[in-house]
């Protein structure tokens, strides 16, 4: 029997994003090959072929490419030079290695936005040793955001410092090498727009989502869609996100994270070139999930509709602060008894403080009701020591 699609997709990385990408492709009988260092990663059991190895290993990535029609990645920290070589050899990489080389460096990201007239907060890129002598008077307020140009992930590699602390050399005790000094956006509302663009230039965005962060660990606590921001602001956010991905000539799924300042101006914070936490709700809440959309793009199929089916709230389930190791999930019965609630458990073998263990999404006729249900469930769902 001849399959109607290219059905060998290689994923660099075996985390929960890969797991959900695979789950969305199973109805199409797509098969997936995985490269990951750990054999107990969330995606391992779903792989047709599992290759154990570092995501930076040139030979392992080429081994994955040899058995796959197209290559994608579910984390940015991979060997981009190998991907460049593979593209030169004719292998399809989605999103492209050239985009990944920009995204991997937060300094290059910010410079790209500035060069293409894409609104972003004021910044400069410099070696951390020079931070204390930078002209901080050009930045508004008393706080400065310092970001490591490379290696940051999930809230790591970012510090919010006072100007005085930067001038006293505190950044040098936290960071090494190049950093971005960035204006702190006071009282910012944080939005995200998932953008899909295929090789034919067809582009669509998902409805704007509004994110609420855990202040202690700088991770998304929960998000809701649609956003409560005025329609004019949401339109600005969507336009900025679409313009950014078009400027990159991006092919794939992209999460464009934005700040909205007190004046209602939208500013790009960062872009992730992959399925993203801010799009998990699309699995149940949209006609086409971000994961199905990426599969469509990699298979050369038309883009799916991105409209919301229902208001939705997505909540991360994080590892409890006082637990490392074996665990069980407390509060599961409450979630499974709630109409419109959907659980996604990531199959991680151990709990760690602040680790993303899973998420749940609640759909309801009104956003207010979905938020209330979600907050009630969030208070009950915890990783605890097994009996």
What does this protein structure show overall?
With 387 residues, the protein is an alpha+beta fold. It is globular. The chain folds into three domains: 8-93, Rossmann fold, CATH 3.40.50; 122-183, ATP-grasp fold, A domain (Dna Ligase, domain 1, 2-Layer Sandwich), CATH 3.30.1490.20; 189-384, ATP-grasp fold, B domain (D-amino Acid Aminotransferase, Chain A, domain 1), CATH 3.30.470. Helix content is 27%, strand content 28%. It has helices at residues 16-25, 58-66, 80-88, 97-103, 106-115, 163-167, 170-174, 231-248, 282-285, 290-299, 332-336, 367-380, and strands spanning 8-12, 31-36, 49-52, 70-73, 92-93, 123-127, 143-148, 158-162, 178-183, 189-197, 203-205, 209-214, 219-225, 252-260, 266-272, 312-318, 328-330, 341-345, 356-363, 382-384. α1 (16-25) links the parallel β1 (8-12) and β2. Strands 10, 11, 12, 13, 14, 15, 16, 18 and 19 form a nine-stranded antiparallel sheet that branches.
CATH architecture of the largest domain: 2-Layer Sandwich
Which fold name corresponds to the CATH topology of the largest domain? D-amino Acid Aminotransferase, Chain A, domain 1
Low-pLDDT stretches: none
The CATH superfamily of the largest domain appears as ATP-grasp fold, B domain
Q: Which structural category fits the helices and strands?
A: alpha+beta
């Amino acid at each position: 029997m001849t399959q109607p699609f290219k059905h060998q997709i290689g994923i660099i990385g075996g985390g929960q994003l890969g797991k959900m990408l695979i789950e969305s492709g199973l109805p199409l009988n797509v098969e997936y090959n995985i490269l990951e260092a750990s054999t107990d990663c969330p995606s391992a059991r779903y792989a047709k072929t599992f290759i154990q190895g570092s995501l930076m290993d040139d030979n392992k990535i080429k081994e994955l490419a040899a058995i796959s029609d197209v290559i994608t990645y579910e984390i940015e920290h991979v060997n981009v030079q190998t991907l460049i070589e593979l593209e030169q050899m004719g292998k399809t990489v989605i999103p492209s290695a050239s985009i990944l080389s920009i995204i991997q460096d937060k300094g290059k990201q910010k410079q790209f936005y500035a060069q293409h007239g894409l609104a972003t907060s004021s910044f400069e890129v410099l070696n951390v040793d020079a931070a204390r002598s930078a002209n901080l008077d050009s930045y508004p307020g008393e706080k400065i955001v310092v970001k490591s140009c490379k290696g940051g992930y999930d809230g790591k590699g970012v510090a919010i410092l006072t100007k005085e602390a930067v001038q006293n050399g505190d950044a040098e005790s936290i960071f090494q090498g190049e950093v971005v000094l960035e204006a702190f956006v006071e009282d910012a509302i944080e939005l995200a727009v998932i953008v899909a663009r295929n090789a034919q230039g067809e582009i669509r965005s998902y409805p704007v989502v509004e994110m609420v962060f855990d202040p202690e660990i700088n991770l998304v606590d929960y998000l809701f869609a649609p956003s409560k921001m005025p329609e004019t602001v949401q339109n600005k956010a969507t336009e900025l996100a679409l313009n950014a991905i078009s400027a990159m000539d991006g092919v794939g799924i992209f999460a464009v994270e934005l700040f909205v300042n007190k004046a209602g101006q939208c500013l790009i914070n960062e872009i992730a070139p992959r399925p993203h936490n801010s799009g998990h709700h699309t699995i149940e809440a949209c006609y086409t999930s971000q994961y199905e959309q990426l599969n469509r793009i990699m298979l050369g199929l038309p883009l799916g509709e991105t409209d919301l089916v229902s208001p939705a709230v997505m909540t991360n389930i994080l590892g409890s602060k006082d637990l490392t190791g074996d665990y069980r999930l407390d509060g599961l019965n409450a979630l499974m008894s709630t109409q419109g609630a959907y659980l996604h458990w990531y199959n991680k073998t151990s709990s760690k403080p602040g680790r993303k263990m899973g998420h749940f999404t609640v759909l309801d006729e009104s956003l207010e009701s979905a938020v209330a249900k979600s907050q009630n469930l969030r208070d009950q769902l915890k990783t605890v020591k097994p009996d």
